[in-house]
Amino acid sequence: MLFPANKIKPAQGRLLVSEPFLHDDYFRRSVLLIAEHNEKGTVGFILNKPLDVTLQEAVPGFPEFSGTAFFGGPVQRDQLYYVHTLGNVIPDSVQISPGLWWLGDFDKVKEMMRRKEIGEKEIRFFIGYAGWEEGQLSRELGERSWYVSRGDREVVFSDAHETLWTETVKSMGSEYSLIVNYPEDPSMN
Fold it and tell me: What does the pLDDT average to over 127-150?
């Protein structure tokens, strides 16, 4: 089955949305935030794969925080990454798009968390990331494994993990609307 062609180019702050039949266990029906995209490659974080562990279980000595940890992707699964809305309040942060940053001084993040100065809608933590080498994402887009969509802060911090893929696909326009009804396994149709 031929899916609609991708119309938006990948860039920082945009979303990658997996095509409905992508059989990769890591990326099946996933929505990723592109944190970095340049001639060397792409870095992103899966937004709709919450983990069943607390941040304190994942990172010993981590300050108490009620936010969920997410599986960010299969690369460096022993590392913690974060996306936030705090900008220069966290030194050395890298802007993804207006109102959205990643990285920054981790000691400052922990200090602010100990003081309860950061809320769940201001920072999201990821274990691991998704990465593409130079030219790899372009090839996968050409194979129509991914769609590129515009993202915003509300999508990044959405709590609707179960429906995020469906809602993101619907927001891409009417030519994509039928895709949300495709079963994950086409043999079950």
Answer: 94
**Count of beta carbons in the 10 Å neighbourhood of residue 99:** 12
CB 128 within 8 Å of CB 71: yes
Going by C-alpha positions, the residue among 32, 4, 36 that lies closest to residue 16 is: 32
Classify residue 54 by burial, with Cβ atoms within 10 Å: 0-12, 13-18, 19+: middle
- How far apart CA 48 and CA 155 sit, in angstroms, is 10
- Which pTM does this prediction carry? 0.93
DSSP for 95-141, please give it: EEETTEEE---HHHHHHHHHTT---TTTEEEEEEEEEEETTHHHHHH
CB-CB contact of 109 with 92 (8 Å): no
